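RETRY 2/3 - previous attempt timed out on the joint model. Re-submitting the same 677-residue input unchanged.
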Amino acid sequence: MNIRVSAGSVTERSLEIIRDLKHLEGPMLPILHAIQAEFGYVPDEVKPVIASELNLSRAEVHGVVTFYHEFRDHPAGRHVLKLCRAEACQSMGSDRIADRARQMLGIDFHQTTLDGAVTLEAVYCLGLCACAPAAMLDGEVYGRVDEHCLSEIVAEVRR
Amino acid sequence: MTVKIFVPRDAAALALGAEKVAKAIAQEIAARGLDVKVVRNGSRGMLWLEPLVEVETDKGRVAYGPVKAADVAGLFDAGLLEGKSHNLCLGLTEEIDFLRQQTRLTFARCGITDPLSIADYRAHRGFAGLEKAIAMASADIVKQVTDSGLRGRGGAGFPTGIKWKTVMDAAGPQKYIVCNADEGDSATFADRMIMEGDPFVLIEGMTIAGIATGATKGYVYTRSEYPHAIATMTEAVEIARAAGFLGASVMGSKYAFDIEIRSGAGAYVCGEETSLLNSLEGKRGIVRAKPPLPALQGFLGRPTVVNNVISLASVPVIMDQGAEYYKNFGMGRSRGTIPIQIAGNVKHGGLYEVAFGLTLGEIVDRIGGGTATGRPVKAVQVGGPLGAYFPRALFDTPFDYESFAAKDGLIGHAGITVFDDSADMLKQARFAMEFCAIESCGKCTPCRIGSTRGVETADKIRAGIEPEKNKVLLADLCNTMKFGSLCALGGFTPYPVMSAMNHFPEDFAPTPLIEAAE
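RETRY 2/3 succeeded.
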């Protein structure tokens, strides 16, 4: 996910994405999702491009980007590990798993390990509440996460 | 004859290793040169048995579970294809108590069919409701939905038919059906299961809603935490369109209707309908004041039906079997069935669709089988993060909208989280405030500021700083949030907080301070 591109090509590629999607009713979120899928985050320099294409102010675009937890303002690690912190997972000891994950990775939530291997995120419900605690690694789901499962995940991302 | 084996593709089954099981089965089939078709079905909803593998026999489908990839070769050796016995064999799927005692109307096909097979869907009465709706006047469709007593399954419990009538009567060049699939409440996964296990039923329900109200465009706003549901829904819409169930002429009729799948971006508050509409329009997901009602000025200011997945997915059976049939299930003003999601620290967690009226105790103890840890049940939270915590003393509460409201609770989206006696209710109350602070859209002061003050006050109680005074303050704060917030996030956060404080006062006593040695 750690994608580096030059500023010029970011603007160019963004324009293509925006022009592909701007015909939609309410195109902003689809555009932002596509931008993030392309670059791994929503680069600052894209905001004025979106603003001018959608006839909005830059402040409005910035406001939308920052409202949603999902959109990043900088690239994530190569992997993103999301741990569910909501009630059903709490009832099965997710707080302990979260502490263990922080310990094993040496980072807190919303941080990335120094080697750029993994970003740890909190998530509030993955809909896997009857097989809690739940986790998601790069879109792949895990249920009944215990220490053993967590070590396997950590070993996997460290590879 | 080709034997059919079913391995679920539901996200919960995948989280428990269904993909590895499916791969192992494919390998065995190839290695043994067998004539077997593997169907990736939805989940039957018995999550403690996932991955649940089924095989079709002449006696019916036989279930095995929970199956690990390492069990697969042994299962084939034992005669899996003939449904023979094995220590993982659960007998005929339909005979398993958890399933047998349910009334599956909305989830009638979930886990049985191939979610992306139109032929399967039609063979199980799929599109029968739509066919009938096409032949009816729109007012009659609305009347049938109203007569069925169906109420919004998202949590608010507003009569679906009345909402539809408002949109039907509203004038406008373009109307919309927006499906609220932003299922963010912890302990709920019914929407996800429908979208992954029987997506056509949602498409059918939305199309009927479109025909009834004069809307030609539908949106499914799904949370981004559900990538599997988004993928399945997207594929299902394409299949339905190619088969003529969506598009310029639905099933060859004069009606046009099409659907687009949209993804949220990790904001819990977007499950609130007006915030969802703002988000769908591409704005910050800020709650709108009502009126104007979304039914009159919804998406892009146009008349819009905003319904939950389960509400819409319940419409096809109502159109197919009639309002009376649906209405005859349930109690009081809560008619029909409700897919209860039993989650958290519970032995038999999963989806249990049943008529309204079971008591909470029956659900937790008899159906759920108590806690997974084997310890006593201390509390159950009903209705997600904005729902009240119920102690055992209130386990006689019948599961319906009014009974729960009478006990200062709500059924919400019918998710139940079970906690064992290790739960710390002050911590849970604090979390409710913390969650509200994280997810508040920021529009109303009681929610935006009150939630943060609530966390601080809970911390003071924990630290033993004027605990009696701070408990009064917390209750007062809850009162302000309850009556001073625009939407349910600020307005209902007091439910878990107050119920924890009222029903578990012992957890709100200060931790005894250990005197430092002189």
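The first helix of chain A runs from residue 7 to 21. Closing ticket.
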